[in-house]
Design a protein that fits this description.
The protein is α+β, with helices and mostly antiparallel strands and 183 residues long. Helices cover 33% and strands 22% of the residues. The chain is globular, with a radius of gyration of 17 Å.
Length: 183
C-alpha cells in the first residue's frame, strides 16, 4: 500500500499525539497506571525483600553495580529523556541528592532510552543531572517487578532491602517522605 505525503503526515501527528496522551501530566507517569502514593514495601504481601542486584553500563561505559552503593539509601529512578513527568521530576531528584548526600543518600537514574548513552549524556548535561546514570535493560526492569510506567522509583535501605516505591512523578516533599524511614 502506497501512502501519500498527507497521509504520512497525519499518521505522524496522530502517533505523536497518542504518545503525548499516553504520557501526559494528568496520568503522572508515562505508562499504564495512574500515580499512586508512596507504597512501603512492608505493606505488600511478603514484606520487604532484598533489592535485585544489577550491573549496568554507566554513561561512560564502565559497569556500575547496585552493590557499589552498599550501606547507602538508594533512590533508584527508572526514567527516560522523552518522558514529560520524568523531566519534571529531575530538578527534585537533583535537589534530593544535594540535600541528603551527607546523610548517605544517593539517587541513581536508570535510563530506559533506546537511543544510547550519548543522547542521555547530552540531556543530563543540559538538565544539570549530576547523580549517577546507568543505561537500563529489560532484565533489570523485570527484576523490579516489571516497570509498567515511568517514572517509577524504588527506595532501597542501607541494608539492601526494598523499603518503598513510587509510581509516577514525585515532588521533593514526596521523595523526602519516601526516604525518611530508610534514613
Amino acid at each position: 500500500m502506497k501512502l501519500d505525503k498527507v497521509t504520512v503526515l497525519l499518521l505522524a501527528v496522530g502517533t505523536a499525539f497518542a504518545g503525548w496522551a499516553f504520557c501526559n501530566s494528568t496520568s503522572g507517569g508515562c505508562g499504564l497506571s495512574r500515580p499512586r502514593d508512596i507504597i512501603p514495601m512492608s505493606s505488600r504481601a511478603g514484606g520487604e525483600s532484598a533489592a535485585p542486584e544489577w550491573a549496568l553500563p554507566g554513561l561512560d561505559g564502565k559497569t556500575v553495580k547496585l552493590s557499589d552503593f552498599k550501606g547507602k539509601v538508594v533512590v533508584l529512578n527508572f526514567w527516560a529523556t522523552w518522558c514529560p513527568p520524568c523531566r519534571r521530576e529531575i530538578p527534585d531528584l537533583v535537589a534530593l541528592q544535594d540535600k541528603y548526600a551527607d546523610q548517605g543518600v544517593v539517587v541513581i537514574g536508570v535510563s530506559l532510552d533506546e537511543g544510547g548513552a550519548a543522547g542521555v549524556q547530552s540531556f543530563a548535561t543540559k538538565s544539570g543531572i549530576h547523580y549517577p546514570l546507568v543505561m537500563g535493560d529489560q532484565q533489570t526492569a523485570e527484576a523490579y517487578g516489571g516497570i509498567s510506567s515511568i517514572p517509577t522509583t524504588f527506595i532501597i535501605g542501607r541494608d539492601g532491602r526494598l523499603a518503598g516505591s513510587i509510581k509516577g512523578g514525585a515532588s521533593l516533599a514526596g521523595l523526602e517522605a519516601a526516604i525518611k524511614p530508610a534514613l
